[in-house]
Design goal:
Layout: E1 2-11, H1 14-24, H2 29-38, H3 43-64, E2 75-83, E3 90-94, E4 100-104, E5 107-115, H4 124-127, H5 135-139, E6 150-151, E7 154-155, H6 156-167, H7 175-191
Antiparallel strand pairs: 1-5, 2-5, 3-4, 6-7
Length: about 190
């Protein structure tokens, strides 16, 4: 069973709230609450409220489903912080020589997902999953068709076209021609 809670528009930047969330992610609810209670961070109080709200949501959904859930056996399955708006929270701070520095005050949104399964445990539905198909295979058609076989780093079609060009006696260009030319010059020098 899973329960979710979110706290929106918490004061403080999302970067600072993530420092606190990283300490409690994947922990037991009791351990998380103890960490939050004694964390020396401003964001910890708002996150603690959110965790308590998620516990209450878990109890409520368990009662509605007529299932018993022990709050001490809940785990933080997922916890993340999103950036909130800064519009309307721009302030001016006095600066030296009569100037003013612009300053933004930040909001953040915290979301917490609780589960009664330990992190790392596989459920029955996860164990019986089928392998995922690639995008090409899902689309079908020419995109899912097998590609031409490669021969020494070149496709069959490219190697056949090259053979046809060389058999007609056309002049080779580029690096290949320079290598062949230098090889022929060396051969002539050794013959002389």
């Amino acid at each position: 069973m899973e329960a979710r809670a979110s706290a929106k528009y918490l004061r403080g930047s999302s970067q600072k709230a993530r420092l606190v969330i990283d300490m409690i992610r994947g922990k037991n609810v009791n351990q998380a609450l103890a960490i939050l209670r004694f964390a020396n961070k401003r964001a910890a109080a708002g996150i603690e409220k959110c965790v308590r709200s998620a516990i209450a949501n878990a109890n409520e959904t368990a009662e509605k489903a007529n299932v018993s859930v022990d709050p001490d056996e809940l785990w933080l399955k997922a916890a993340f912080v999103d950036r909130g708006p800064t519009k309307g929270r721009k302030r001016l701070r006095p600066a030296p020589q009569g100037r003013a520095f612009r300053q933004q005050r930040h909001f953040c949104h915290v979301t917490i997902l609780l589960s009664n399964e330990k992190p790392g445990e596989k459920t029955e539905s996860e164990g019986k999953s089928t392998p995922a198909l690639s995008r090409r295979a899902k689309r079908g058609g020419a995109a899912a068709a097998p590609r031409a076989k490669r021969i020494a780093g070149k496709t069959e079609a490219a190697s056949e076209a090259k053979k046809a060009d060389t058999s007609k006696g056309e002049k080779k260009t580029g690096k290949v021609a320079s290598k062949l030319g230098s090889a022929l010059r060396r051969k002539k020098k050794t013959e002389e």
